[in-house]
Each structure stands twice: as structure tokens, then as C-alpha cells.
Design a protein that fits this description.
alpha/beta; 10-stranded mixed sheet
Length: 297
Amino acid sequence: MILACFNILHYKAHEETINCVDSLLKLDGIEKCVIIIYDNGSKDGSDKILREKYAGIKNVKVCVNPDADGFSRGNNKAYKIARMMNPLFIIALNNDIVIKQKNFLTELVKLRNEDEYHMIGPDIYAPTVAEHQSPLYPEYPSIDVVEKDMEKVRERLANLDEGAEWEKNRLEKNKIKKYLPNFAISMIRTVTGNKKSDDYKKEWLNPVFSGSCVIVTDLFIKDNEVLFDPETRFYFEELIMAERCRREGYKTIYSPKVKILHMHGVATTKSFDDMKEYARFKYTNMLESYEIYRNQL
């Protein structure tokens, strides 16, 4: 039996994908795993670069989708390939994820053996902005909380110049954070009252995970032919997945015992010529995905 299939959704940014794969190849037990690089319609020759890079490594496979299907559809196609291998875990990763925890797989197996978990969420730390990004919500949020966030998105879409400026400022702040030591970022957050939560430090049952790394176990794999259902193009996969697990009575757990790094790649923003175009894409897709989520409640 294959221990795990790592599905890496690749789009154009091959340097990030290489960093991701190279980190996985150093994990204890990786010889029992398969790494699937799923090119989601890049059409820039990066699939050839990746094939050549890993040509001599038997457990790294490069698959190419001729169409850019978006996040959930691309992951679903990669999931179907992995599912046929009958692994204990399928781990869907953004290509800007790096795993440096050598015993990552060992800790996953321990958690799976503790109880009949369908999903396991790791501690996702983004070093460039000094943030722990999971759990997204330690407890399932009310629709009022989500609707409040969506109202801000509607306002930014209606005033796209302001929305584009907001996105530009957000990205610029992240660039600055990249060069600041973590203690300086923590001090700034304390002074501004924007201190981050300590929720990541303890285990949570049935939370909402961050979507940059989705880990499902054999229990989920056995009963589900697709990873994300219903499909969105982008956004809201996390809340839709949490609602689906709640509806099916699946048991899920967030645990700080498994750790990954989210390096914040730039695959999405590379696809746009200007910030206004990017903002329109982001807000439009967020609102469309939100309606799909609302229909699940």
C-alpha cells in the first residue's frame, strides 16, 4: 500500500514547484509515497522543465492538463489519479508549500491511528508574513460572519479602483514583512491592535482548515470520488469542504503536531497585467464561490 500521494497543483511558477518537491524528497518515509506534479494548463514549457528535472526519480510523476481548470477542478483531476493508487493519505498542496518537518509522515500516521479521522489539518506557517494560517476558523463560523466579509468584497468590486489600490497595498505590505524579523512584526501588530490568534497552538476538532494544504485519509478516499464537491473555480473551498464534512458526519482534526511552510508564491498574480484586472478576477470569483457555498447550507 502506498503511504501517501502528494498532489502538487502546478501553474507556471516552476521554481516554487521545484522547492516544494525537493522538500518532500527529504522526508522520512518518502520512498513509500508518490509525488504527483499536476500541471494545470500552464502552457509555458514549465512541464518540460519539471519532467527533465525529475526524470530519474521513480516516485515523482508529472501529469499535464491542457486546460487551466482553476483550483478545485485541477485538484479533483489530480485526486482521481492519486485515488487509483489506493494510498493511506492524499495530500493536496499548493506549489508554494515547503515541508521541513522530517517526521511529517510519521506524525500523520500517529494521528490517523488515534481515531477515525477523515481529514487532518496541519499548522501552516507563512514565514514571509510571520503568520500561522490554520485553522482558518477553529469553530464553524456563522453565516453572518462570512456575509460581513463578503460585503467588503462587494464594496471593493463596486469601486474597483479602490479595490485595486487595497490589493496593491496588501501585497506591498507583505513584501516589506518579508524583510522584517518576526519580533518586529509581532511588535507592530501589538501596537496596532492587530495581534494574531494563538488558535494554532492546540488541537481542534472539526474546524475549518486552510486550503493551501488539504490532507484526507483512507476513510475519506474510500467514500469520495472527488476531493472538492461542488467545484468552484477559485475561493471558498475551505468552507464548502467543512460544510460537506459536517453534513456527512466526518471527523476532522487540526493538529500542531504536523507542520508545513507556506512560502506565498505568485502563480496567480503572474497571470495578470495589472492590479485592477487581478482585483476584478479575485472579487468576482469570490462572490460566485460564495453563492455556491450559500447553496450548501
